[in-house]
Design brief:
The complex is a heterodimer. Chain A is an all-beta fold. Chain A is built from no helices and 12 strands. In chain A, strands 2, 5, 6, 10, 11 and 12 form a 6-stranded mixed beta sheet that branches. In chain A, strand 7 and strand 8 form a beta hairpin. Chain A is globular, with a radius of gyration of 14 Å. Chain B is mainly β. Chain B has no helices and 11 strands. The termini of chain B are far apart. Classes of the chains: A mainly beta, B mainly beta. At the A-B interface, strand 6, strand 10 and strand 11 of A face strand 4, strand 5, strand 9 and strand 10 of B.
């Protein structure tokens, strides 16, 4: 079945450091790919998405590019802030079962001032 | 404001005492789902519904029931909760007319079963 693998955390960075969170996937067909963010004590928010190969999703300084050849969707940000501290989930849409989202395990990001 | 609402947000209960977590969306979405979030496992789908009176099992349906009598509501029922159902639960909805199938999530319900 379809699956998503994310780098394990927690990832701890200093403010203004460069962020990369790796995400790779296994899927049949051509799923849409997503990054969701969960701030402490809150629900899930969509951070960005990409619907086809070579699409780049971007939002709030975060970017990720849909790479079909490497089956990857790595999340990057050039300069993180303390307010970016959260849990980040990579996910893909599985059309076969009611378009469910298949999630990675999540990566905790901690940014120190 | 377009949103998915869940109630209650927090619930502590005892083994075997039936409970219902409500979910409602105001976006006229066809699809609704329930997920549970557990540390190290991400979110896993429990049940989903493609429209009124149409429901199907997700990846972890054991111990749960759902119903979809109205398009906007999708309650999650635990008829005999057990401690292994202690988790954070999310309801989500999306429309078939968005080809990215972006899902909109509720704020979550933290359930503790003792």
């Amino acid at each position: 079945g379809n699956s998503v693998t994310q780098m394990e955390g927690p990832v701890t960075l200093s403010e203004e450091a460069f962020l990369t969170i790796n995400c790779t996937y296994t899927a049949t067909g051509y799923p849409s790919l997503f990054w969701y963010v969960q701030y402490p004590g809150e629900g899930l928010q969509l951070l960005l998405k990409a619907t086809k190969a070579d699409d780049k999703g971007s939002n709030k300084g975060f970017e990720a590019t849909y790479r079909k050849e490497t089956t990857s969707f790595h999340l990057e940000k050039g300069s993180v802030q303390v307010s970016d501290s959260a849990v980040y989930f990579c996910a893909l849409s599985d059309y076969k079962y009611g378009n469910k989202l298949v999630f990675g395990a999540g990566t905790i990001l901690r940014v120190k001032s | 404001e377009a949103q998915v609402t869940q109630n209650p947000r927090y619930l502590i209960t005892v083994t075997g005492k039936k409970l219902t977590v409500t979910c409602s969306q105001n976006m006229n979405h066809e699809y609704m789902s329930w997920y549970r979030q557990d540390p190290g496992l991400g979110l896993r789908q429990i049940y989903y519904s493609m429209n009124v009176e149409v429901t199907d099992k997700g990846d972890v349906p054991e111990g749960y029931k759902v119903s979809r009598k109205e398009k906007r509501n999708f309650p999650l029922i635990l008829e005999s909760p057990s401690p292994n159902q202690t988790s954070l639960y999310f309801c989500a909805s999306h429309t078939i007319f968005d080809t990215s199938y972006e899902q909109y999530f509720g704020p979550g319900t933290r359930l503790t079963v003792t």
